[in-house]
Amino acid sequence: MELKYKVDGQNVKAVHNIEPVAGSKGYLTMLFDYIDTAWNNLAVVCEFSNSYDFSNSCATVVKDGKCNIPDEVTDKTEIYFRLYGRTKDLNGTIVTERTLLKQRR
User: Fold this and answer.
1) How many Cα atoms sit within 13 Å of 3 on the Cβ side?
2) 79, 36, 3, 56: CA torsion to nearest 10
3) What mean pLDDT is reported for the chain?
4) CA-to-CA distance for 8 and 34, rounded, in angstroms?
5) Is residue 24 within 8 Å of residue 1, measured between CB atoms?
6) Residue 57 burial (CB < 10 Å; 0-12/13-18/19+)?
7) Cβ distance 7 to 36 under 8 Å?
8) What is residue 37's DSSP assignment?
9) Spatial separation of the C-alpha atoms in residues 47 and 98, rounded to whole Å
10) Which of 34, 29, 32 is nearest to 2 (CA)?
11) Chain CA centroid to CA 58, Å
12) How does 8-22 read in b/e, with b if 16+ C-beta sit within 10 Å?
């Protein structure tokens, strides 16, 4: 299942109308459309957590605007995520706002 988002600066907005079912494993993919050119040529990682404060999180590389949601966070009804973009020379970083993906039971 593909979940589509637009990324504009530090803002992330869902453009899908899907509410996945909690517990799906190896099935959920996120697609990011970077509206802001600031994201061009950045190495991007997506951090996921089931807690608002990201106290227990995991991350995955976003390649070509796409990543899979790690199985570690799919059992709960709330998945929080944020993107980190880093310049290749490691001198610049951009972080998006915390975004909530709700799942149904």
Assistant:
1) 21
2) -20
3) 95
4) 6
5) yes
6) middle
7) yes
8) G
9) 10
10) 29
11) 11
12) eeeebeeeeeeebeb
Express each pLDDT in 33-79 by its tens digit: 999 889 988 999 999 999 999 999 999 999 999 999 999 999 999 99
| Euclidean distance between CA atoms 58 and 49, whole angstroms | 7
Give, rounded to a whole angstrom, the gap between the first and last alpha carbons of the chain: 16
pLDDT of residue 91 exceeding 90, the answer is no
Q: Tell me the sheet residues that pair with 12.
A: 7
How is the chain split among helix, strand and coil, in percent rounded to 5? Answer: 5, 50, 45
How far, CA to CA in Å, does 33 sit from each of 9, 20, 23, 37, 86?
A: 11, 20, 26, 11, 17
d(CA 18, CA 84): 24
Query: How far is C-alpha 88 from the chain's CA centre?
Result: 20
